[in-house]
Amino acid sequence: MINRLKTLYELQLIDDQLDELEELRGDLPAAVNELKGRIQGLKDQTEQKQAEQQGSIEKRMSNEEEIEHLKSNQKKFKAQLYQVRNNKEYDALTKEIDHIDEEITKLEAQNKALEDLIQKLKIEIEDINPQLETLEEEMKGKEADLKEIIKANEKEEAKLSAKRSTVEAETKKPDYASYMKIRKARGGQAVATIRRSACTGCHNVVPPQRQLEIRQNRRLYNCEYCGRILVSAEIADEVETAEK
Ligand SMILES: [Zn+2]
């Protein structure tokens, strides 16, 4: 039992050190991620606008072709006007010619609107580019800072991680599960000890009778206030000394 308690306390000491290393990185990893998201958002916006722009250009071109086609038809009808034999034929032809005029006017208006839209999209895309550049530069800076911090602690972190794997393998499965659960709930510290009669996790006083039981190392006790696993000061001291 005493070894189970020692192993748990050792695991806590290693995790404390790993947590400290992670804290050195501060909000850099989150900031880098946030910037990545914003950059992707702007890139998506640009792509969307470019697709809309391309679609508008194509539509305008097909409208132009249609206008040419209509004009050439109209020309034929106008030529036929000189060969009509009666008023009925004349009316039918002029009606057709007028109808084509309307169609052309409609398509030209549509192309004017498309041209405006293409220009508007062009300006919007140009506006996004400097924003994108600023964000990318900012991200590069933060990534470089992060890399530097990681590099500075690389060896220590690798050493701690290896040690952690060994200690984790030595920890009984249910103990480890319980440790991880409390660690998650308590934001890091799952194992506490008793100093000046109080739990070092939550600083509440541990009743004398309970302190006595804990010192006997017969089973796992959890602090009745914070739920952390409690080990005696003797075990804590022993493990800490061995660590040094
Ligand atoms: Zn406590």
Give a verbal description of the structure:
The chain has helices spanning 2-24, 28-80, 87-170, 173-185, 208-215, 233-243, and strands at residues 191-195, 198-199, 221-222, 229-231. The chain has 244 residues and is mainly α. It folds into 2 domains: 23-163, Helix Hairpins, CATH 1.10.287; 172-243, no CATH class. It has a 4-stranded mixed β-sheet with strand order 2-1-4-3. The radius of gyration is 39 Å and the shape is rod-shaped. The mean pLDDT is 95. The protein binds zinc ion.
Task: Summarize the topology.
Elements: H1 2-24, H2 28-80, H3 87-170, H4 173-185, E1 191-195, E2 198-199, H5 208-215, E3 221-222, E4 229-231, H6 233-243
Parallel strand pairs: 1-4
Antiparallel strand pairs: 1-2, 3-4
Helix pairs in contact: 1-3, 1-6, 2-3
The structure holds zinc ion.
Zinc ion is lined by residues 192, 199, 201-202, 204, 223, 225-226, 228.
Summarize the structure.
The chain is mainly α. It contains six helices and four strands.
Features:
Helix Hairpins; 2 domains; 79% helix; 244 residues; binds zinc ion
Mean pLDDT metric: 95
CATH-defined fold name of the largest domain: Helix Hairpins
Shape: rod-shaped
Q: Indicate the structural class.
A: mainly alpha
Low-pLDDT sequence parts: none
Bound molecules: zinc ion
